Amino acid sequence: MRMKVNSIARACALALGTCGIVMSGTASAQSSNQELKQQVDMLKEQLELVRGQLDKVVKQLATAPAAPVTAPAASGSHDFLERKAGDGLTFFTRGGEVSIYGNLDISVDAATKGLDGMTVGGVPPAGRSGWMPDISTNLSYIGVRGFQTLGTFPANFVYQLETQIDVSAASGTSGSNSNTSSVVKGGLTSRNSFIGLASPAWGAIKIGKTDAPYKSSTASMNPFSGMLGDYSVVMGNSGGDNRVEFGTRLDHSLWYESPNMGGFSVNALVSPGQNRGYDASNLAAGEGDCSGGNIPGSGGTPVACNDGAYGAAYSLSAGYRNGPLYVTGAYELHRGVNRTSDLPAFDPTDVANEWAAKIGAQYRFPTGTTVSAIYEKLRRNVPEALAFQNERSRNGYWLAVSQQIGDNDSAHFGWAHAGQSPGDPGQHNTPGGLASDNAANMFTLAWKHQVDKQLSFYADFAETLNHSSAHYDLGAGGRGVTTDCHDASNPDPTGFDPNGNGPHCWAGGKLKGISVGMKYAF
Length: 522
Hints:
Blueprint: H1 2-27, H2 33-63, E1 82-83, E2 89-93, E3 96-112, E4 132-137, E5 141-148, E6 156-164, E7 173-175, E8 180-184, E9 193-199, E10 203-211, H3 213-216, E11 249-257, E12 264-271, E13 313-322, E14 325-338, E15 351-364, E16 369-380, E17 394-405, E18 409-418, E19 440-450, E20 455-466, E21 510-521
Antiparallel strand pairs: 1-2, 2-3, 3-4, 3-5, 3-21, 5-6, 6-9, 7-8, 9-10, 10-11, 11-12, 12-13, 13-14, 14-15, 15-16, 16-17, 17-18, 18-19, 19-20, 20-21
Helix pairs in contact: 1-2
């Protein structure tokens, strides 16, 4: 090929030289017509030679084999924020991945506290205690999670930042006439957020805040998550209020997640108390709320962390999954829980450990029927002298049956039972004391329709049937609007507010609610 090109170059040079001769000959008045004719003939011969050489080169190029295709970049080599194929919103980074995810859930509801006919000294509950419509945001959030490889280091750096999204209400501190919190749930990273190291070989170590292993161990057994009739109304809820003591997120925590070991897995978490008060009556260092989930003085209590605040917390779960079968056990301990506001005078013995333990099982049958069951023990270790006001020690039960109907529809039934506790501190309309009838049952029915992988609709009905001294709510566990035992009285002892000198919790309510909602997950 090189010889052919050289020949073409020589021919072109000769042709150009001849052109110069022609021009010179033309310019000279002494050049004869005969010489000019000879030069033109020579130029034609040279041009024919060039054309012949070009034709040969073109034919050789046409028959030459195609150049080899350049090999693709090595696996794992991507441009920064290159989109990853698939349904999720995931991008490659240099040496890792980052994903944006979320859940948007909003419903239209109507609920009643079921306090009809109740009076104290002939005075009924303040405000409206019957049916009231509402629009509720339920377990809505958005988050970013990802990982980054660390060269030869035998683990990846992992991270997650997650924030609650209040779709139907303005973000701000949460407050009611019975409970006030300084935490802005719609603030950045208000939900599970952490950094850590993870490896398929040995698991993950993370630090930040997260749903405790005790909570997450049975989450798959709750088909009503975020709905009216969520099992958190009873399960893990030792007092029957909107706070779920043993089904919650634990701040300032360090935890370990094991890999899947032949179907077995283990999760363990520790959350130091970070409290200068021996009785956990101070705010934990670095936090805006008491460990119990409210601010000092919330609900008209004395201004200290004395309504469920605790020191260090420990949570542990173990599970086994094999095809359609899943079984799990979990344990959680809260040290030095301060409940001195339950008594008219301060008693240091009312600062005691509280713990919870449960076992759960789930099985999916070939018919599309899934059955889940949980047994739970809640205990507060107070001396016998305080048994009369101990409403925190009891047993609980949960049964759920779900049936898949076709490809897009499913029906769900749930029953929760809260057993009777040794004692009760009493409510606005009950004296409390030993052997108070504070058991309760909750029933839930729901239908779900899955439009596609992201969008679904649901409708459900739930009722909480409290015995005479019980005050379990309806909607605890992730709903923006809950229905509880409190009437419309406010914590105003000055007498200015006609509904003041509250809040008043009325036991024995027969709460009911209906809900229709839409959910979009991405």
